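User: Predict the full complex structure for these chains.
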Amino acid sequence: MIGRLPIAKMFAATILLTVVISAVMVPINWDGEQASTAAPKIDTLLDVMIVLSAFVFSLVMVMLFYALWKFKVKPGDETDGEPIHGNTRLEVAWTLIPTVIVLFGAGYSWAVLSDIEKTDENRLTVDVFSQQFAWSFGYPEQGNAWSEGELHVPVDRQVEFKLHAQDVLHSFWVPEWRIKMDNVPGITTTAIVTPDKVGTYQLICTELCGFGHATMRATVVVEPPAEFREWTAAQKLTVPAPLMESIKQDSEVNPIPVGSGGA
Amino acid sequence: MVAAIKQPGWIRGALGALLAAAFGVGLVVILRDISGLPIWQTEQTGYPHVVVPLITAPLGFLAGFGCFDYWLRWAAGMPTIPEDHSQHGAKSWKDYFRFNTDHKVIGIQYVVTTFCFFFIGGLMAMMIRAELAQPGAQIVEASTFNGLFSTHAVLMIFVFVIPVFAGLANYVLPLMIGAPDMAFPRLNALSFWMLPLAGLMFIGSFLAPGGAFDAGWTGYAPLSTGAPLGQSFFNLGVQFAGASSIATALNFLVTIITMRAPGMTFWRMPLLVWANLSTSLLVVAATPFIAGAQFMVLFDRVLGTQFFQFAGGGDVISYQHIFWFYSHPAVYIMMLPGFGIISEVISTHARKPIFGYRLMALALIGIVVLSYTVWAHHMFVAGMSSWLRVPMMFTTLLIAVPTGIKIFSWLGTLYFGKIHTYSTAMLFALAFIVTFTIGGISGVMLGMVPIDIHVSDTYFIVAHIHFVLFGGSVFTIFAGVYHWFPKMTGRMYDEKLGRVHFWGTLLGTWGTFIPMHWVGMDGMPRRVSDYAVQFGDWNLLISCFAFILGACQLVFLYNMIVSWRFGPRAGGNPWRANSIEWQVSSPPPIFNFDEIPRVVGGPYEYGVPGAKHAIMSGEGAEVSQPQPTTVGSS
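Assistant: Here is the predicted structure of the two-chain assembly.
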């Protein structure tokens, strides 16, 4: 049965289509600007998945359109097709090959995840407070300096964000960093980022939190360490006592990222 | 008048609803008085004077409407009314508006009702896209917008996609397995009548003070536990939709297991039957979890329990675990019946046996088992225990394997067949393969934790779910409706209009949902009424395609209504299909078969010389005793 199909040509068409789709899609910068050490790793994973997906998609398209071209009924033909009920080899193939592809994808993702969540001894800790519909930031290593609506971090140094929520769920996302984590009432969650590009970005709330959700934003400034020191020193406010109290009551649920070997 | 009140029906139903509502209010007032609370509401949330009647009034309506009459008489020891089949079949359009135990009537009731909700939900989608056509506020304010997208999703999921499959299967499944009806016809009717109540409750929430529920269809605590009254409409509507769904699933399971015609072994069942068997297994075990989750939210809101209140010792994330333990299997509840439809349509119109029939059935079972082990992939950034992510990623990606088997087997079915594309059903089935493949691919990407961390809660998610739910489930629903329209109505639809609908829907789906992937990856979060100016042009384009998509559905509506009334008569078997439902007249006789058919072969034996699926009456079948219609009537 398979012998009657132009397998070599179909395979060549699949590869050709894969190459064309990949050539168009891989050079496009889908995720936008990269501004953390995690960003290029995640984007590379995405590119690898785009190529693999292009292959799967091309295979399905070639199989579908070849069948539609070759086996479309001639006008007036009332007969049935050939009574083929299956082919064990083919069925085993299209069970095993996708299994290998997805296991590869999962393994690769696991490696990337462990890599981007590796913690550094020299990291800076920043508290992120969220409430309807505003962000504020505390710097425990800088005398609990407090900033409302503007997050400053030094470039090229790992930051461990301790995320807190005072009322409902919020979510911490800076698209250029590719890192996101929910702020959960009652617990402290953690996000690890190493910003590696000086610039101004936006912090976006991505968990629906009420009517002001769409506008719950904050400015993120990544700057050289000296400027960061100056800025924190210039912050006159300290984290208000009620916020300090609330985070002491929180429990930490995910302090140890998978694969970091314990932090 | 007195007779009208005694007769089950709309008047007694309305009276029942009123009495039950009054009873509910009275109960709240008395209990508050006894407890020493002010008898009228003083708290900011809770609204027991509305919530309790919202539970009792629908039950009162169902009782008045006649849903419980037979059981209540029997339970109370009163003489039961002998079954005279007066509640069976439909002679005029009026019979569709009463308590009817005929699975064919119920099937049509389901499909028509759910499509009404589809159009209401679709109208909300149009309003959402009008608001999002440009950055800034356009037509509604932010809290109304949150209510709109929440209600849109809830209508589409709970009172369109899930029950429309139950409706289609209600009609064709008993016919397919050679049964005279479902196992429990009265339970079947009760299941249907709970559904419009759920839908009305969702829509009615717009009238509640504070507006419609606006915490998303996911209703995450603690936003939902502190939300205004509308949220309770959601909590309770889900109970009715869920109970309807669970009862129907039980009915399908018992029907499929016990009421197959002689010779209909499991390996001779059409794949639609396999698909509904799998779906029902998911529904009976998973749906109670969402019912539980919504009750817990309701109790937090009304009774002051602290399930999800961190200040009271509750746990916020546990809501998400319970919710997704249902709602991930629910994704397959919304997809597996569609897989069944696609198998029927492709096999029939390619004139070929299904390629790898047994592996197709086993893939369904594989999906059922795996789907219980993947829920936390919705929570990779939720702050749950981080070690849970990697195992859930592996199971999530592995579930692509049985899904891939299905895609490849449908393609294999096309080979060496005689592919007919004159039917709109077949066009939707073929397009489904393409769009669902794309939705599957984006699903695999979402399953990978590092990618998901970036795109979670962005428009990429919106794009993915619409590719699998619209490009996937809804395409299969259209395929199913076109495929069985001649069987259900006895008339043919207009293929020309069907083609207009098909191509417009395909263009609209791709144009609307493909660019959403891009804006999501580039930084646009979901569930926002306003967004950064840089996404303005893309959103305008998306909205334009969305309006095309919406307009094309009106062509479908026109085609269905006019063809049902004036379409040319369809024969019993316009597609020359093999399965049993096509071997009877269109529409089928009131008890489906004069004699129960005898199944002698597989359902897809196209091209096999001399092969037969079933021997119908008058074809030399043994005179087997027809299953009495009183099965399960007690």
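Chain A touches chain B through 86 residues (CB under 8 Å).
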